[in-house]
Design goal:
By secondary structure, this protein is an alpha/beta fold. 44% of the residues lie in helices and 26% in strands.
Length: 129
């Protein structure tokens, strides 16, 4: 795994920590490919992502995320709570999560803190297998 992100199984979710000084679509492609593998390996479809970034992804890249998630088998069964501590990055994360949810790619929401994200994530009902 690259040094700029980690993916690990925690109690009832897959945790992603992404540290980035630039918003790269290729980095997101690799991170979410690896996260999809972790979901399958652990039969866990709740994901808590935390971005330690100060540069937001462009709107153009956000629109391309639909393909990244689709290519890796994400469905509305995947519940993604994404945390960003940077206000500007949070705004683009809100757009991305709304886009993914509205297009039926995943059930996602962006948050400014981990506590709210975990509360939302744990309130999601697991779908039938």
């Amino acid at each position: 795994m690259d040094a700029d992100y980690i993916i690990e199984k925690r109690a009832d979710y897959i945790y992603i920590k992404l540290v980035a000084n630039e918003a790269s679509l290729e980095r997101f492609r690799k991170v979410f490919h690896d996260a999809a593998k972790a979901c399958k390996e652990h039969n866990c479809y709740n994901i808590l992502g935390e971005s330690i970034a100060t540069v937001p992804m462009s709107i153009t890249h956000n629109a391309q995320l639909k393909q990244v998630f689709s290519d890796n088998g994400y469905t509305p069964r995947h519940h993604i709570a994404w945390v960003s501590h940077d206000k500007e990055v949070l705004e683009t994360a809100k757009f991305a999560t709304m886009f993914l949810t509205k297009h039926g790619v995943a059930t996602a929401q962006a948050f400014k803190n981990t506590d709210d994200a975990l509360q939302w994530l744990r309130s999601r009902q697991p779908e039938e297998k």
